[in-house]
Design goal:
The chain is mostly helical. Helix content is 70%, strand content 2%. It starts with 6 loop residues before the first helix and ends in a 7-residue tail after the last helix.
Length: 439
């Protein structure tokens, strides 16, 4: 110890001990930062949010669509949503998740590294939640997106063709677009804003539905005979379940239980209520009869439009978006549909496609930096609107091309449209051997 009695040696020792202490401190911090941390509050919320979104497909959307279809096709309509959820559940863990969220390949698609959930286990973490929870949450988005497509073609597509189409569509259309926007792909790098699925879910589903409806052709008697909904009551119940589930859809997309999640929760409700009232008001002005179907459809249109903007706009912005959705949705299922004469059975394009486009562009207008950090045109950033427009055009173009290719592939296995006699009798009995109502 005599060595440390020398003044210079003591100073050197102090410096060394200090340096070691600093290194130990920062290495400990770096190690702690490198260890993903599961937040129990975030995890609990995301499990609930995922369950809410799950409810939207085999319950909310199934009833919403089922009630709008004719009674002879109600069960077939419900079954198309139900089977879409089951198919997406399996495809997602086998390869869909990896294609959407796996390591980026040239901005276009995810790699195959997570096929069959390879490399993901109980201890895997994404952000502050278990990766398994994130996988499940994203799977529910894939499920409802393909189910939405069915609204355009109910009553005239073979069930076996629908199953094959769904498998191919989830693989070659949904997964790449999800990667572009949410998985680190080229639109994400460009700076597109899509908080919960304006492009990935609604434009994607709406445009696909229109293309396949055009390919199938109109229903027998379309425009000549009345095709009345089987149960507006079920449709309204379905709309309420969709609204309820949408809180998980939008607020859950923050992937945390925090202030932004709460903001998304609030603006989601506000936009839906606004659009429902606007749609009903238009009906009152035009026909003197405000309908429950119109109120329900308007609320869903508002939910669609606020989806991409939920994490970026303030409450006043959500009222603007809801107002636009009520107007655009109403015109989409009346004026636009009648003008062009296409048979979009349950108006998937009119509500989801057109209102999805409005919501994506409105995000580029109304994004408030005080909410989600991004600014739109009205907050001094005109470039954001251009980026949103590019995303809309890219998704529409990709959808049109790939949907046509997939339809052609499915058609190789036989006609995708049901036989005329089956269409006349109804698909509940001819395909499923069941009836929705016993008379």
């Amino acid at each position: 110890m005599k060595l440390f009695k020398h003044k210079n040696v003591q100073q050197l020792a102090s410096l060394l001990f200090g340096a070691v202490a600093i290194l130990l401190f920062f290495s400990t911090q770096a190690f702690a930062a490198s260890q993903a941390h599961i937040d129990s509050g975030d995890t609990a919320w995301m499990i609930v949010a995922t369950a809410l979104v799950m409810l939207m497909t085999p319950a909310g959307l199934a009833l919403f669509y089922g009630g709008m279809s004719r009674s002879k096709n109600m069960l077939n309509t419900i079954t198309m949503s139900f089977v879409a959820y089951c198919l997406a559940s399996i495809i997602w863990i086998l390869w869909g998740y990896s294609l959407a969220f796996g390591p980026d390949l040239s901005g276009i698609i995810g790699s195959s590294s997570n096929f069959f959930m390879n490399g993901i286990g109980v201890k895997s973490v994404s952000g502050t939640i278990p990766t398994y929870v994130f996988v499940m949450f994203q799977m529910t988005f894939a499920a409802i997106t393909i189910a939405l497509v069915s609204g355009s073609i109910v009553g005239r597509m073979r069930f076996s063709s629908w199953i094959l189409f769904s498998v191919l569509w989830l693989t070659f259309i949904y997964s790449p677009i999800a990667h572009w926007v949410w998985g680190g792909g080229w639109l994400s790098k460009l700076g597109v804003l899509d908080f919960a699925g304006g492009t990935v879910v609604h434009i994607n589903a709406g445009v696909t539905g229109l293309i396949i409806a055009l390919f199938l052709g109109k229903r027998k008697g379309y425009g000549k005979i009345a095709m009345m909904p089987s149960s507006i009551t079920l449709t309204a119940l379905g709309a309420v379940l969709l609204w309820f589930g949408w809180f998980g859809f939008n607020a859950g997309s923050e992937l945390a239980a925090d202030g932004l999640s709460g903001s998304a929760f609030l603006v989601t409700n506000t936009a839906a209520a606004t659009a429902g009232l606007v749609w009903m008001l238009i009906e009152q002005i035009r026909s003197g009869k405000p309908t429950l179907l119109g109120l329900s459809s308007g609320a869903v249109a508002g939910l669609v439009a606020i989806t991409p903007a939920a994490g970026f706009v303030n409450p006043m912005g959500s009222i603007v978006i809801g107002t636009g959705a009520g107007i655009i949705g109403y015109l989409g299922v009346t004026l636009v549909k009648n003008k062009f004469g296409y048979d979009d059975s349950l108006d998937a394009f009119g509500v989801h496609g057109l209102c999805g486009i409005w919501g994506a562009l409105a995000t580029g207008l109304l994004a408030d930096p005080a909410v989600g950090g991004a600014a739109g045109l009205f907050y001094g950033n005109p470039k954001q609107l251009l980026i949103q427009f590019i995303a809309v055009i890219a998704v529409i173009t990709f959808d049109v091309i790939m949907t046509i290719i997939i339809i052609k592939i499915v058609s190789l296995f036989g006609s995708i449209r049901v036989a005329p006699a089956d269409e006349t009798e109804g698909l509940d009995s001819t395909i499923h051997g069941e009836r929705a109502f016993e008379i």
